[in-house]
Write a structure and sequence with these properties.
mainly beta, elongated, five-stranded antiparallel β-sheet
């Protein structure tokens, strides 16, 4: 079974034959290079011929995609930046809430 999934930067794929999960991180058409980062953090590379002769399929982003990046802080993922999304108390019209 050959791959019908085109490589797209930022998309996640599963190598069905080898049970590997990876994300495409760069495509260099002039160098015939598709760079990927596996779920364990390793970097790999495919040429277009080997990509389309492999058993890759699209998948959803894994829940634990940040596992290989143990040294990341929550702020690096954008999860704790709550102040940036709160409304300014001076902009709230509390009269709307008194009814």
């Amino acid at each position: 079974m050959a791959t019908v999934a085109d490589p797209i930067v930022g998309n996640w794929y599963k190598d069905l034959e080898n049970n590997l999960t990876f994300k495409v991180i760069n495509i260099e058409d002039n160098e015939d290079s598709i760079e990927v980062q596996y779920l364990d953090g390793d970097i790999g590379e495919y040429d277009h011929e080997s990509w389309y002769n492999s058993t890759f399929d699209f998948i959803e982003e894994p829940e634990d995609w940040s596992a290989p990046f143990d040294d990341l802080e929550d702020d690096d993922l954008g999860y704790t930046d709550l102040d940036e999304h709160r409304r300014n108390p001076e902009d709230i019209d509390f009269e709307d809430y008194l009814d």
